[in-house]
């Protein structure tokens, strides 16, 4: 069984533990994630993180004296499905709040449903800047935008010696946004961006793009895509003899790259939102250690924790908002989210207003960590 399939099997086991609480009033949270399809490995890990958060919350008495129940749905790595899942969760399952929907493209597809039914969603992964600038007051994002991630990464440009760069990104809102924002950051520092190429999310062969990039005089290649495609890309880059620094954005999974790309992953750099290899870097180191322990007890692969941490934080943020609201009411939860302050695994979460006046979305500031793969091990470059 491949590593990514093993991850999905483990996550499915965790998701299956403890179904709907029988004969007991519960508070529901909807979870809209890609459990099948091209980014299923990542979506299953986020979902596993939500389950660990719910289990911890319930072990402490639940929310407002009621058990927390996650209603988990598969958006199949597809934006149309993501929108349909959101509508189903809201209208049939009557969830007062959601977590979702991993990809920026999926989240953007869900957003009209949030506005139509006036139900808030904590966005745990998506990074396209327009998610929080379109004027949707039911969006609260804990993950960094492409722009804030680029701003956080800027402090590493000089130490790494980056002078000229190329970009190879997945051809969707996430990848295009990353290339635009990181490219702007580099140009603002007076550096050169040679080529910015894209690849389809389902592409198995990117040798043509890599050969094109090999012809430039860049010292660095920035890559943005899911870890499955990243693995293929690194192997193909090694086969083509592409000699340059590789930097991934968007919170890649280094452990999976080590397991599946082998030596092709060596000397690559990765921008991380949560660094479980170094729990002391988390906003709440003790909470990070407990999460790491619970993840291990669940039999989940250690490499999935960077994704799982986002699902974990999202559920905890919503739980705190529901407690503040005093009821599982969508509008009260939306208002309470502005008051939440939470030291999570992925940083200190406190929402700031972004977007058109009167219709602002919530965006939590974020600082990323930089890690490197050296001889098959993850090392911390800097906090």
TrEMBL record:
Cited Pfam families: Peripla_BP_6
Stretches assigned to the Leucine-binding protein domain: 27-352
Swiss-Prot/TrEMBL keywords: Amino-acid transport, Signal, Transport
Ubl conjugation is among the record's keywords: no
Signal sequence coordinates: 1-23
SUPFAM superfamilies membership: Periplasmic binding protein-like I
Entries under Gene3D superfamilies matching the protein: 3.40.50.2300
Name of protein: ABC transporter substrate-binding protein
């Amino acid at each position: 069984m491949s590593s990514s399939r093993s991850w999905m099997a483990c996550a499915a086991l965790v998701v299956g533990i403890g179904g709907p609480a029988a004969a007991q009033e519960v508070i529901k949270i909807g979870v809209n994630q890609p459990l099948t399809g091209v980014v299923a490995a990542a979506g299953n890990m986020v979902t596993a993180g939500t389950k660990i958060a719910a289990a911890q919350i319930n072990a402490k008495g639940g929310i407002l004296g009621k058990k927390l129940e996650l209603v988990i749905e598969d958006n199949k790595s597809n934006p149309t499905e993501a929108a349909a899942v959101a509508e189903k969760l809201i209208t049939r399952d009557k969830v007062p709040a959601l977590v979702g929907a991993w990809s920026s493209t999926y989240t953007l597809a869900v957003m009209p449903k949030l506005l139509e039914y006036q139900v808030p969603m904590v966005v745990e992964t998506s990074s396209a800047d327009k998610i929080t600038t379109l004027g949707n007051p039911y969006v609260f994002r804990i993950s960094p935008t492409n722009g804030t991630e680029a701003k956080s990464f800027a402090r590493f440009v000089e130490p790494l010696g980056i002078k000229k760069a190329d970009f190879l990104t997945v051809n969707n809102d996430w990848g295009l946004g990353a290339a635009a924002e990181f490219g702007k950051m580099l140009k603002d520092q007076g550096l050169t961006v040679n080529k910015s190429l894209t690849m389809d999310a389902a592409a198995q062969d990117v040798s043509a793009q890599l050969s094109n990039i090999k012809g430039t005089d860049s010292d660095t290649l920035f890559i943005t895509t899911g870890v499955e495609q990243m693995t293929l890309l690194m192997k193909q880059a090694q086969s083509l003899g592409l000699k340059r620094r590789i930097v991934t954005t968007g919170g890649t999974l280094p452990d999976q790259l080590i397991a599946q790309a082998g030596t092709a992953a060596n000397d690559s750099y990765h921008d991380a939102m949560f660094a479980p290899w170094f729990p002391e870097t988390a906003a709440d180191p003790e909470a990070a250690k407990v999460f790491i322990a619970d993840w291990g007890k669940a039999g989940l692969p250690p490499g999935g924790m960077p994704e799982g941490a986002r699902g974990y934080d999202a559920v905890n943020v919503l739980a705190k908002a529901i407690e503040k609201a005093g009821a599982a009411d969508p509008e009260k939860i939306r208002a309470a989210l502005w008051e939440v302050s939470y030291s999570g695994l992925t940083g200190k979460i406190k929402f700031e207003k972004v977007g058109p006046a009167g219709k602002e979305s919530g965006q939590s500031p974020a600082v990323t960590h930089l890690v490197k793969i050296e001889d098959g091990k993850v090392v911390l470059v800097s906090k």
